[in-house]
C-alpha cells in the first residue's frame, strides 16, 4: 500500500473512532493528528523524490542522445559526394550503414508529403542503395523532435513519424525502383533523438528519416 493510500485509510479509521467513541482523550486526538502530519510529510517527500527521478531520467535521455549521435557519426567506409551535396548524412552504426535524411530536405513543416526537393534527394538515396547495397534490407525509420503536435492533422509525433516513413517508402518503391519486400517501416516519434531538444539546431537534427541498411 502506498503512503497516500495509507494516509487516507489511517485518516478514515481515525475519523470512525472519533465518531464512535465520544470519550476519546486529548492524548488520543493528538496521536491521530501527529499521524496525519507524519503521513503528509512523507507524501511531500515522495513527491520531491519523484521530481528528482524525473530529472535523472531526463539526464539519462540526454546522455543517450549524445551517445547515439556519436555512434551515428562514425565515418562511413566510403564517401558519397552526391549525398554530401544534398546535405544528407550517412555513417556507420555498429554493423549497419545508416543514411539520415533531414526532414527539412523532404517535407514541409508538419507535413508528410515528399516535396520536389525531397524527391530529388530520395532519388540520390535510391541510387546509393541500389549501387552498393542491392541485396540488403532497408529499415525506413521516421523520427521527430519533442515539440507537441499543435497545428497539423496528426495526433502525435509517433503518427507523424510513421506517416513520413511511409511516404519515403512509397517514393523509394514506386518511383525510385527499390523492392518493396526489402523495406521495413518504423516510426519512433521523439523517442530516439540524435541531439538535445532544447534548441533549434538539436530539434532540426532530430527531425529526420533514417534508412538503416542491414544484411546483404
Condensed summary:
Helix content is 54%, strand content 15%. It has 216 residues and is an alpha+beta fold.
Radius of gyration: 27 Å
Mean pLDDT: 84
Q: Give me the secondary-structure category.
A: alpha+beta
What's the domain count? 2
Q: Give the strand order, joined by hyphens, for the main sheet.
A: 1-2-5-3-4
Q: If helices are DSSP runs of H or I spanning 4 or more residues, what is the number of helices? A: 7
CATH fold-level assignment of the largest domain:
60s Ribosomal Protein L30, Chain: A
Helix content: 40-55%
* Total beta-strand segments: 5
Q: What is the strand content? A: 15-25%
Q: Ends: how far apart?
A: 54 Å
Major sheet details = 5 strands, mixed
Supply the CATH class of the largest domain: Alpha Beta
Write the element-wise H/E pattern from the N-terminal end onward: HHHEEHHEHEHE
Give the CATH H-level superfamily of the largest domain: OmpA-like domain
Structural topology:
Elements: H1 3-20, H2 26-72, H3 81-85, E1 89-93, E2 96-102, H4 103-106, H5 116-132, E3 137-143, H6 157-174, E4 183-189, H7 200-206, E5 208-214
Amino acid at each position: 500500500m502506498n503512503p497516500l493510500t495509507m494516509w487516507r485509510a489511517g485518516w478514515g479509521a481515525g475519523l470512525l473512532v472519533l465518531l464512535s467513541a465520544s470519550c476519546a482523550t486529548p492524548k488520543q486526538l493528538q496521536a491521530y493528528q501527529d499521524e496525519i502530519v507524519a503521513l503528509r510529510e512523507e507524501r511531500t517527500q515522495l513527491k520531491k523524490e519523484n521530481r528528482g527521478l524525473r530529472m535523472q531520467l531526463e539526464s539519462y535521455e540526454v546522455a543517450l542522445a549524445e551517445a547515439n549521435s556519436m555512434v551515428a557519426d562514425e565515418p562511413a567506409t566510403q564517401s558519397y559526394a552526391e549525398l554530401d551535396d544534398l546535405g544528407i548524412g550517412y555513417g556507420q552504426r555498429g554493423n549497419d550503414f545508416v543514411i539520415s535524411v533531414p526532414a527539412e530536405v523532404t517535407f514541409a513543416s508538419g507535413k508528410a508529403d515528399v516535396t520536389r526537393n525531397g524527391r530529388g534527394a530520395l532519388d540520390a538515396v535510391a541510387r546509393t542503395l541500389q549501387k552498393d547495397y542491392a541485396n540488403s534490407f532497408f529499415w525506413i525509420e521516421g523520427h521527430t523532435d519533442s515539440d507537441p503536435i499543435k497545428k497539423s492533422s496528426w495526433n502525435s509525433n509517433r503518427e507523424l513519424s510513421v506517416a513520413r516513413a511511409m511516404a519515403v517508402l512509397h517514393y523509394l518503391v514506386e518511383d525510385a525502383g527499390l523492392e518493396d519486400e526489402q523495406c521495413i517501416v518504423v516510426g519512433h516519434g521523439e523517442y530516439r533523438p540524435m541531439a538535445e531538444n532544447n534548441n533549434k539546431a538539436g530539434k532540426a537534427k532530430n527531425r529526420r528519416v533514417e534508412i538503416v541498411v542491414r544484411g546483404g
